[in-house]
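Protocol step 4 of 5: obtain the predicted structure for the target chain.
Materials: sequence only (see below). No template structures provided, no constraints applied. The aim of this step is simply to have a reference model before the mutagenesis design in step 5. Sequence pasted as it appears in the construct record:
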Amino acid sequence: MTRRVHHAVVALAAVILLVALNATLYTVREGQVAVVTRFGRVIQGGVSPGLHGKIPFADSVHIFDGRLRTLLVTGKAVLTRGKRRVKVDTYVKWRIADARRYLAAVGGERRVAEERLQEVVASALRNAFGGKSLQAAAAGQGHRLVATVDRDVADYGIRVVDVRLVRIGLSGGMISTLDKKMEGAQIAQAQKITAQAMEDAEAIRAQADQKRAAVLADAYVKAEKIRGAADAEATTLYAAAYGRHPHFFVFYRSLRAYEKGFANAHTVLILGPDSDLLRYLPIAGR
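Step 4 output (structure tokens):
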């Protein structure tokens, strides 16, 4: 019985010791930040990683994740110049910079901190897009948004290291307007290309007609020269033949005249019996 009591006392002492150690010691791991309060008042902030001691029942330790976090802020409606309504999605990279302020401002609650952060981001987006065109507002806003949001959340003990636009969603009316503008631009471009093509075609056609006229004129001149030379040569030959055989020449010309004159079966010639044209035709009674 005594041995059992002894074992029970040892076990109880061990439990008491463990409870006492647990009440007086705490551990901060890598990537964590801690704040120690005594009766609700902060006595130590920015506790480094490792094993630390505290006063039991008087001190409370608040440990937070100090690593970089990502918050996706979606569907924030903003107005651009001309009262065009768009929805913007962004992501925010943030971490705890001042554990004391973080505990005092949001009670150390991540949910509360991210709600405050979303409000600040929405306000910054409205200021960034308000009074500007969609292109101007979307271009080069990254570093400006980071500076603005980081400044406005400093009182919450938060540090913002990056803010990026993920998507800009257009409303149905804006999409319809942009489609019409793009369609009009495409039609105008097509008309411009068509007009230029027609102008080029007319210029090519005019050049072709000019070249054709020049070729025909040159050919006509050459043909006339050849015809003139042939006629001159024929005249020379006729003259030579006439000089050598005048009667044969007259006979030949008369035959040509018969050929042309009687080529048409319906041709009617009224001639006298003494006509020179009938000199080489045998006529009865002549």
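Step 4 remarks: The mean pLDDT is 75. Strands lie at 25-28, 32-38, 41-45, 50-53, 59-65, 69-80, 84-96, 158-170.
Proceed to step 5.
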